[in-house]
Write a structure and sequence with these properties.
307 residues; alpha+beta; 12 helices
Length: 307
């Protein structure tokens, strides 16, 4: 097998590692590409191609994350990961576990860790690398990596997100939610929302945004029922889709350009959190991006006409 063929076989794993460390599709793709360039130019043959490439992409991702953290601290409004529409790394035996590890809630929790802690946690807890491999990847001793793993696990366990275990029930509830959304059915929405549900959005100062979060089933239901039907009236479309391993949707304008993605946290038969990504810079990998300002203005004008 050629180097190119070996690399392509491992590309899904490399992307999966990089995305969980970086929370960015574009940066993860760049890290994978840089890994290939280094592998292609390397004159030595690694004992284990998987271990070698995983170590390279991990080191690159750590370096990128260190520089990204300062930018995220200066971010306008809520910061969310770039939405992941499909995880190319598949393991049927661990599909639910892998999906939970890439959820918006889990990735936001990972933001609390240092870059080294995050990398060690991802390699150990998500992909089950052994400590000698992890030590080689992050350039620390095995003992230091074990300490990093313990510290990271302690941080993660204090806020580890929980999700609906039955994925069929979870997806059925999400489908009912989006149906009620299209109909502007306040009562139907309230029945599906947790009493303390929260809806938050990441616009990055580059798109129309919600207030700093909407809280409570009544407030969320009434806000959604007031706005979404007029979006559909001006040609907006809702595409039910898994986002970051959880039920969600892609919103498009009448030209099929992307307006936003939503990801839902579902637990105990209710929607606990709705996270919307509206920042156009974070949607380019999903498809052509719509002019959200123009669509919002058109929807606002349609609401005025129907009053």
């Amino acid at each position: 097998m050629s180097r190119a063929e070996e690399f392509e076989e491992l590309r899904p794993l490399l992307f999966a590692i990089a995305y969980r460390i970086l929370s960015s599709v574009s940066e993860a793709e760049d890290a994978v590409q840089e890994t290939w360039l280094r592998y292609e130019s390397s004159v030595t043959e690694p004992t284990s191609t998987k271990a070698f490439l995983s170590a390279v992409v991990t080191r690159i991702s750590i370096d990128v994350l260190r520089s990204a953290r300062s930018r995220r601290e200066q971010y306008v409004g809520e910061w969310f990961p770039e939405p992941l529409v499909a995880d190319p790394y598949e393991d049927p035996a661990r599909s639910a576990e892998l999906a939970d590890s890439v959820s918006m809630a889990a990735l936001l929790l990972l933001e609390r860790l240092s870059p080294l802690e995050r990398a060690v946690f991802v390699l150990r807890e998500v992909f089950a690398f052994d400590f000698p491999e992890i030590a080689s990847a992050v350039g620390r001793s095995e003992a230091a990596c074990r300490q990093l793993a313990v510290r990271a696990r302690r941080h993660m366990d204090t806020g580890r997100p929980r999700f609906e275990a039955d994925r069929i029930q979870r997806d059925a509830l999400a489908s009912r939610f989006f149906d009620a959304l299209k109909d502007g059915d306040v009562g139907g929405l309230q029945e599906l929302l947790a009493a303390d549900v929260q809806m938050v959005a990441d616009a990055g100062g580059k798109a129309p945004n919600l207030p700093r979060g909407i809280f409570g089933s009544d407030n969320v239901a009434r806000t959604l029922a007031a706005f979404l039907p007029t979006l559909f009236q001006v040609g907006g479309q809702l595409e039910f889709h898994e986002i970051n391993g959880q039920p969600g949707a892609i919103f498009r304008d009448r030209e099929q350009k992307v307006l936003a993605t939503w990801a839902l946290d579902v637990l105990d038969g209710r929607i606990q959190t709705i996270r919307a990504v509206i920042n156009p810079d974070k949607l380019a990998h999903v498809g052509l991006v719509a002019d959200a300002w123009a669509v919002a203005a058109e929807a606002k004008a349609a609401r005025r006409r129907t009053r």
